[in-house]
Amino acid sequence: MKSVNPYIAPRERMIVEQLAARGVRDERVLDAMRHVAREAFVPPELREMAYADRPLPLGEGQTISQPYIVGAMTEALGLEGGENVLEIGTGSGYAAAVLSHIARVVHSVERLPVLARRARETLRRLGYDSVAVIEGDGTLGWLPAAPYDAIVATAEGPGIPPSLRAQLKPGGRLVMPVEDATCGQALVRLVRGDDGKDRVESIQPVRFVPLIGAEGWPEEDAWLARMRIGARENAAEGS
Ligand code: SAH
User: Which of 34, 36, 133, 209 has the smallest number of CB atoms closer than 10 Å to its CB?
Assistant: First the structure.
């Protein structure tokens, strides 16, 4: 008897109901997300929820983004195939795997050694040979493989790190969440003009974990933010 992969149907439902229905139209993105086994990137005890319409905890206080957000950010990068891409915030490695289905090569930087090691193992096991996971402070980019056609950061910073902007090719796109006075955090896209002038636009309000590093938030701020979230969760549970 043929065994049926129980994740195929939920994955297809995710494509239709969470991505296409909310406006992710790029077939390259939909196809990439149809091929990546998200269940292999979430912690084993959360596998049943791999295709739920929400972010999931990864350990170390970090989260794997909601599928729709991965789709929207990947689409905003405007990849057509063949690109050299830099990701900041490897986390589980899921978004890097999605990017690698379209791009030629993906360099992904993660600051937490435990997560970097785990993501590297998962990606290797699944055969994602065009993804390189680098341990370090991604706010400084990754000079050895620069310049990039596209850069994406999956953690929120106080602004766009100058080092990332500098490692973008003319015509390149950078997508990341940044602090926003009206909505808290907004996803922004910077397009580096061929003339060296930048165009920056706000895409949508979002909620991400902090980008911690030399050109991000200082470590102490992140601790305070996490304690505030913890206090709120405790209050909610108690009421
Ligand atoms: N793209 C991930 C989600 C990552 S959550 C996925 O698909 O699973 C954000 C990640 O950014 C966390 O793992 C966090 O440790 C990492 N991070 C925060 N600041 C960073 C920095 N300066 N450099 C590299 N990674 C950073």
Answer: 34
